[in-house]
Amino acid sequence: MLLRALLALAVVALSLWITLTTPPRLGLDLRGGTRIVLQTEDGPTVRADAAATDRALEVLRKRVDGLGVAEPSLARSGERRIVVELPGLRDPREAADVIGRTAQLTFHTVTGPAQGPAGPAAKDGTRVLADPDAPGAFLALGAPALTGDGVKSAEAVLDATNGRGWTVDLAFRDSAAGTWARLTGDAACAAPGDPARRVAIVLDDRVVSAPAMQQGVPCGSGIGGGSAQITGGFSGQEARDLAALVQGGALPVPVTTVEQSTVGPTLGAEAIRASALAAVIGLACTGLFVMVIYRLLGVLATVALLLYGLISYAAVVALGATLTLPGLAGFVLAIGIAVDANVLVFERAREEYAALGRTAGRDLRRPLETAFGKVWSAVADSHITTLLAAGLLFVFASGPVKGFGVTLAIGVVTSLLSAMVITRLLADLTLRLPAVRRRPSITGIAGLGRLRTRLTRRVPRLMARRRRWLLSCGALLLVALAGIGVRGLEFGVEFTGGRVVQYTAERPVDADRARAAVADAGFPDAVVQTTGGAEAADGEGAARGEVSVRVRETGDEEQRDIREALTRVAGPVEVERDDLIGPSLGGELRTHATIALGLAVVAQLLYLTVRFRWTYATAAVAAMTQDVLLVVGLFAWLGKPVDSVFLAALLTVVGYSVNDSVVVLDRLRELRRRGGRIPLPDLADRAVAQTLPRTVNTGMGALFVLVALAVLGGDSLTDFSVALLAGVVLGMASTVFTAMPLAVALEARHPAPAPAPVSRRGVGAVV
pTM of the full predicted structure? Predict the structure, then answer.
């Protein structure tokens, strides 16, 4: 106990210090900003491998620094992907224009006027491009005399003295400074008015400036000092963007945008408030429920839950993990997992107390100590199966959903510490108190509870009708498969590719008028959805409307047309969220989702086969697969979107379903070891009866949290919560009506060797 006390005290103190001193790292979906995913492509001479992508990443980092965005984040993802996160940037167009351009800067001699049109460079490097100073005219350019690699720095400057407006001042490196002097010196030798007196500055096949050498530039020696100035009637933003491009240098390989997401700061703030409120209400309801059921030990478990929340949050912050909206949901959801371990211990302690009878005396610690020892196997198995699902999410998910896997994994590990160390320590200290020993009824373990008492008096003979249950579950499964086949799945934009933009209007918007406006703008196939009546963020109670427009992949110009069309029917509108997924990435995400679900099934089957007989493992995985298909079928019938957040919900359902089955199968295995010649169906009925209170109480704890998320979590978490609500209810049912009947049937066909008989003490003491 001393070791547990020291460990708990150290962990809680460290967590409190981290919480008070370290701010969390919020994802863009919580603090607002733009996320762009770029993919490098093979160039004419360079292959887009990991090394080329790393070089491109460094170039992009310099460009982003030039944009002046606070706390940007750039990282390579895989071999050819670069993830750029720009907090606070609400208009992704300018960032995409600057970040995604190749930015090949070259300096050319001008050999004379030319006939259009503009074209690519010839083998000798000469080319024809449009003259920026004379619309409709073209210039013949010589081979590049200098490239952007020779530029040391570039800075946007307002030249008010000479009336040139915004310019970009360049400083060359030592070797390039001499080349620049020779280039301008040769141009200065041409006669005034001769095109050869000009020097063309070209950026990505476009002449941005072609200044003529002034009379003061000496022929032959040119402009010294290693500096130059690009003029072109730029605005301040254009000059800064050009300076960022030049400063960053040219990308070694071309890049394309495969994903782009923008979230407004208002939406992120609302998500934080809603998730925090859901967490508080869910935790309060769960704690109250546990206290009503388990009395004094329930109070101690609630204290442990509060400390669990502190430790989990501190772990997320300490690891530097990005806290996303799905991550917050994972954090809240893990409360249910933490409750499960406590409920397992308390229910088993009730059994052990009843089994000991009068021999327990006043020492309540003995049944509790025995309970902690006996539930460890089930607790470990249930937590490992959930960790498998969280690990698959981390590997195969992307963006904010990856954060869900991280926080869920942290929550699972922390719940072990909370239940097996902190709750155990608090309970052991409390049960030593004389006042508690004199009144054991207040502890919550001195009685079996109403549900367990009823099940003790009459064990339901469920396995006698196992064929009926299996047929009923099969019928439900057929209904779900019919929904998938008849209605089909409404894949989200992440899996199909395309663009979804969520707008906020000053007043509620009629759906038909919004659809007509978007269709008139040239998008008759767009999916337009509206909501209205929400209270405005200004706190004045004004009603506002929200419009969601989903179209195939479009550019920023098309989105501007849609926004203008909505403005005409709804007044001024603001972009609250903008998600763009390229078709190639959509197909890739669909593939990853399929692989993740397939691996989830295989991983659970392999793990359970190691921990149990293959018959038990098959029954548990079959029930889990049934739960997943039923949830998918429910979403098909309801027409709800299937996206990456739904994938996170499905993988969580996998963990919950197997968790329930593992607890009951673990009890069945224990009863078989001690059951002698009792028929397996009867032992299975006893296993269900003995674990049903745990199943119900754990399910109720999870339902409180999920209902709070569904009601208060906002639109982005409603479907997630609905999927998990269905999964938790179906998981509880499938354990009893699918996993156990199937395990009994498989064992009847493939019986295990009879275990050696041992003492039957405790087998019939409760049931």
Answer: 0.71
